[in-house]
Amino acid sequence: MDMRKAQNTIIAASAIAIGAMLVASIIEGYRYSYATSIACLLLLMIPAICMAKDVVLLPWPVVLCIGVALSLHCLGVLMDWYTLIHWWDKLTHLVSGIAVASLAALALIVFIVSSSKTIVPLAWVPFLIIISVLTMEGIWEIFEFSLDTIIGTYTQHSLADTMGDITTNTISGVIAGLGVAYYMSKASLDCLVESMRVDRIVNWVRHQFID
Q: Helical H runs in 29-124?
């Protein structure tokens, strides 16, 4: 499948879905919902801008995970499903966790392929992905705890809820790790990195931090 065409289609479909939820939330006068929709649209613009500027071209399954994760989050806020459906939070954490894990995996793969000085055994990659996801989840939980403490929000409902989120994201990391392991057994990482067109980013990093 052509990555650019697939990415355009996925981003357009996700933008339409989130845009419709934005309109619905404005009509309902639900400020938190339309603020969430606007934030998600801005996040969705990042891969679109990167593609338009020819900075990086993400594989379409990763873009699909991003689009689905943002759409599900907006829908959950608009319909109040985070409160009404006990597993909705776990579903969104699972999908967003896979998206984050996939991005971490791509960054790691680009580093492995592009670096001539650092050698990372490919067998380590799935485990490094899981560690990356757990690290980012830990940072996110600290952020939520800080918000609840400082401004009085209610993002962390209980210890069980927090542990459930961490467990769900661990599962996301395992799924992404297994997916990467399967991909590495079937295809070339060099071809993947070449298809992503990350030469400008790699050259910039080398110039800033290595040269």
A: 31-52, 60-78, 81-84, 88-114
Same domain, 97 and 116: yes
Give the tens place of pLDDT for each residue, 101-120.
899 889 888 888 887 777 77
Assess whether 70 and 98 both reside in one domain. Answer: no
Considering the domain architecture, whether residues 126 and 206 belong to the same structural domain is answered as yes
Single residue among 43, 70, 85 that ends a domain in this structure: 85
| Ranges 21-30, 37-46, 128-137: which has the least confidence | 128-137
CB of 50 within 8 A of CB of 8? no
Q: For 61-109, what is each residue's pLDDT tens digit?
A: 999 999 999 999 999 999 999 889 989 989 998 999 899 889 988 988 8
**125 and 197 belong to one structural domain:** yes
Residue type, 154: Y
Burial class of residue 168 (count of CB atoms within 10 Å of its CB; 0-12, 13-18, 19+): buried
Range of the domain at 171: 86-211
